[in-house]
Amino acid sequence: MSSALGYEAMAKTAISIGANTFQYFTRNPRGGAAKAIKDEDVEAYLKLSSENNFAKVVAHAPYTMNLCSAAEHIRKFSKNMFKDDILRAELIPESYYNFHPGSHTGQGVDAGISLICDALNETLSENQKTIVLLETMAGKGSEVGGKFEEIAKIRENTELKNKVGVCLDTCHVFDAGYDIVENLDGVLEEFDKIIGIENLKAVHINDSKNPIGSHKDRHEKIGQGHIGIDAMKNIINNKHLRNLPFILETPHDDIQGYAEEIKMLRNLYDK
Ligand code: FE
Ligand code: FE
Ligand code: ZN
Hints:
The chain has helices at about 5-15, 40-50, 70-90, 110-125, 150-155, 170-175, 185-195, 230-235, 255-270, and strands at about 25, 55-60, 95-100, 100-105, 130-135, 145, 165-170, 200-205, 205-210, 220, 245-250. The chain is of the alpha/beta class. It has one domain (about 5-270): Divalent-metal-dependent TIM barrel enzymes (TIM Barrel, Alpha-Beta Barrel). The strands form 3 sheets. It has a 7-stranded parallel beta sheet. Strands 4-6 form a two-stranded antiparallel ribbon. A two-stranded antiparallel sheet has the order 9-10. Helix 1 runs parallel beside helix 2 and helix 4 (about 110-125) crosses helix 5 (about 150-155). The chain is globular.
């Protein structure tokens, strides 16, 4: 959803499709100015969220944000957006701010990681309540974050690492080569060894249009891609994952598609 709707409206929409969390873009995907957040709207949203037992909601950074671009003006524009978004996220208690680590655009992974850490070290503050989430990526093009080691390195080189968590995107990790279909436990063990499972805060639950290791990042509807419904059932019931907020980013033309997917996943969820 888009925050231009307002928080109360987003919560109402989520409730109307059987959801108890949601993800929203902080501003239009091209990264223009964000709409002012009104106190009354936040209050109405908090009331709905507590009445309906919401999990933490997730803000998603605009796709144009790239904290490790080779172009300085893009890094600067991205950092300003990042700072502003975090200030805004602070107005929404119990929320996460998810972002793509970035694309190094030819500078190499290590240079990319160091620029991302610079931006985090400049932006995060000790007293902020918002936890920012590094999204696991498919490793498309020069994307940073397609390997757990890269995500771990970003956290390790960030001073306030307790403000930095991880969001696991099922389509992306599968696309990056992690076999969550045949070996979910093994993948999560690896995650734990390299990043620490306690740092995993949210899941983007998407099927994949492409086979494992394709590095293409094309999401598919749940059960209709190469991950498949059996693996989805394992994922939502896994002991490390089952209590995290699950966000659908599947391709649907209308909201009814999400309502049906939520219903299907709830039926597969062990009570
Ligand atoms: Fe994303
Ligand atoms: Fe995602
Ligand atoms: Zn994606």
